[in-house]
Design a protein that fits this description.
The protein is an alpha/beta fold and 243 residues long. It is built from 7 helices and 15 strands. The protein is globular, with a radius of gyration of 17 Å.
């Protein structure tokens, strides 16, 4: 449901900066279903990527065989990302707070953390420079916290005006898609509010997995349409093509 909902959010013709894992699944699903002109750019340096199968891990060589061209990683950031040539960036994380800030650095105190995470990679630049950011995460109480332990990638900082003060080019997270629901920033406060529920999910279930008092973006959240047979068929085929 999460992959299908994220794929539906991508429009044909957009330039999309794709991460390995859940974002790659959604982007490839969109490309095969309704967005044949979607331009996929991976941090590894492949431009207009058209993989025969999903990349399973960083360094998966299938990408280099199915791209318009391959450039250096610095060129991806210097020419494509930082000047604002990317329409949509995909991000995920270990923690996400009510203002869309993401933590992929540490859980707990920075100097003596309970868990030390992989770190930032290119995520801070993606969060700062893409025209908009889609966040795809599994909805769990330990991940959806009121305030992240460490701000690896800025969403809306401490609230309205922070992105502008920091000189960030993009408008930040426009949608958070989870396995339970869809959240979007309130236009006045920037706080993430509930705007959609997936099939069979209740408001109480979402609130139980959210570390702040979740507000509604409308009087009644929309109900995400269930995946179609075509969407499910294409999604399942991504696991087997080229295997």
């Amino acid at each position: 449901m999460m992959s299908v909902a994220a794929a539906r959010a991508l429009r044909d013709g957009a330039v999309c900066f794709v991460g390995i894992g859940l974002p790659s699944t959604a982007a490839n699903l969109a490309w095969r279903l309704h967005a044949p002109n979607l331009v996929l750019i991976y941090e590894s340096g492949t431009l207009d990527t058209r993989p025969e199968r999903l990349p399973l891990s960083i360094g998966d060589g299938i990408l280099a065989d199915s791209a318009l061209t391959v450039v250096s990683v610095p060129e991806v950031f210097n020419y494509w990302l930082q000047p604002g040539r990317i329409d949509v960036g995909f991000l995920s994380g270990a923690q996400l707070d009510r203002l869309g800030n993401i933590n992929t650095t540490v859980i707990g105190d920075y100097d003596e953390p309970a868990v030390r995470l992989p770190g930032s990679g290119g995520a801070p630049e993606i969060a700062a420079c893409c025209a908009e950011v889609l966040i795809v995460m599994r909805h769990r109480l330990r991940a959806f916290v009121s305030t992240v332990d460490f701000v690896t990638s800025v969403g809306y900082g401490t609230g309205p005006g922070d992105r502008e003060r920091l000189g960030m080019r993009g408008k930040g997270p426009t949608r958070v898609i989870t396995d339970l629901a869809v959240l979007e920033p309130d236009p006045e406060t920037d706080e993430l509010v509930l705007t959609g529920l997936h099939p069979g999910i209740t408001l109480e279930q979402v609130q139980a997995e959210t570390g702040w008092e979740l507000q509604l973006g409308a009087e009644e959240p929309t109900r995400t349409p269930a995946p179609t047979e075509r969407e499910l068929g294409v999604l399942r085929s991504l696991r087997t093509v080229g295997a």
